[in-house]
Design goal:
Layout (H helix, E strand, L loop, with lengths): L8 H11 L5 H14 L3 H9 L2 H6 L10 H13 L2 H12 L10 H25 L2 H12 L22 H27 L2 H19 L8 H14 L5 H7 L7 H9 L3 H17 L4 H8 L6 H5 L4 H11 L23 H13 L2 H15 L3 H8 L2 H20 L3 H26 L5 H17 L13 H22 L7 H33 L7 H11 L7
Helix pairs in contact: 2-5, 5-7, 7-9, 8-9, 9-10, 9-11, 11-14, 13-14, 14-17, 15-18, 17-18, 18-19, 18-21, 19-22, 20-22, 21-22, 21-23, 22-24, 24-25, 25-26
Length: 559
Amino acid sequence: MDQIEFKTLDEFIRLFHKKVSTFTTSEMLIQLQHLAQILSEKQIQTEAKNDCFFKRWSEIKMPISLITFDFISQLFVIYTKVNETLKEDILLDFIWPLIVYEFEDKKVVVEYFTILKTIYDRKYRELLKSFGILEIVKYMLKTTEIDDMICCEQHNNKENPQQTITQETQTKIDQFGLFINDIFNQMINDLKQSTGNNLTDLEQLFGISVHQLLSYCTKDHNYCQVQTLLIILLNQLPLVNADVIQKVFQNFEAISFIVLLYNSTTSQVLQVYCIKLFQVITNKNPSIIQKLILSMIPSSKNTKFIENLHSEPLICAILEWLLNIPITIKITEYQMFDEKLTFKNHDVMELTLNYLYLCPVMMKQQLITTLYTLMRNNKENQLFLLSNKHFLSTFPKFLMGLQDEDLLETDESQNSLQKSIYDTSLKLISTVFMNQFQNGKIDMLFQWLKLAELEHLKQKNEDIDGFKDPRTPNYFIRQLITYVFNNILKSSILNTSELSNELLWRGFHLFIASFLAIITKDLIQQDENISKLIGKKVTYSPQLLMITCKYIQQEFRII
């Protein structure tokens, strides 16, 4: 039947209803070529518009075998021949709905999106007003979502293996990603060149498009789909001017979808992309970072989230954010960072420390080792930690907790890891405070010792699985003094001028005085109890009493 079988649009619709299931691909192509020819007439175009021709045509189900590369190409020929109002009908009523078909050939998918890209290249602003990013993403999710299958081996649940999606469906996801990415790229290029009202309109369109895309970045969708959307943003947002980003993400609510995804997904890969996205956004709009960080610190009861903290790429992404290493789409495995890199943000340090306190022991060792490596020879990073309130207020509790775990741990390998973490933590803290000693100060150290003592007082009467902790802060502080001494010796060997550094020794003397005050205070308390029993008062050296009094009243200061 290689002949034309219709003369009017109505006849074409009737023909399709009747014979579409028996058409060969060559017959289909002949009918389309004739349709393109008659639609070039203005009168026929008006008729097609009034009769909703393309909507009626799209309601007729076609065999997938008819949707070939040539079919898609000929459809674009029809699109180019009609007027602007009918172009919109073809796009919205026929071309977009066509994507619901499961194309049999990858080349057909690529050609389909090539045509869409060509159409949107010419007038994406007008088209996004009638068929925006929200509708495009909905089509993406609708046509590539398969309930009984998973997206890829990377996201497979090994305990409940499922069949992965087809290559054709994955091709659709990839092509949707490239298409949406291209639209954002055009918008961003135009944003750089626009002024006045044109710029205002574009900023509004860009903001709406970003929020529409983010609204579908949730755990309820296929991981590969959401990953594709996040990668689009990671590709494009770094290119946007900071003023525009601040308008788009002017408050915390603007990123709430990503935060919800980050806190609820079980995919470590998606969490890494969320972290990278947070870094991009907060670099250009730091005003939202405090609320963001608070929303990312998990409860110790959130076991599913804490299980993900064994993920090396996730911890690595957080460290990259802390050090503000340039964003890449690549997921990096855990690495040892260059010692010359410096900490950039106190809020992200708070997040890093909280993850250190919660993460599994193996990751805890890697993370504390990395932090120590980054600051042991880096004065700037030492000063950063000394000025970080969260570090100074929470690290004592962390170290006291490590002592408890060391007591109770029975597994030999775990015991070894705990000792390594404890040892590295002491090295870190003593190195940090050496920075103050070298300037003759112990302000931060003094505060830290007081916090360590208070933390001990809270814990010392608590039962821990039936055991009482016999150790006191003295045990811990003696260890700390040992590490400080070692640092002084090491520093003196490497640089003999340190031996004559009066400020260093002055600071160290104050540190020893603090230690003596803690010991003496404990002894006085014990002796007072004994004195009540034996009825005899114990006398002490006036110097020790003065040191203890100054310590209790927090009067250790450099004059």
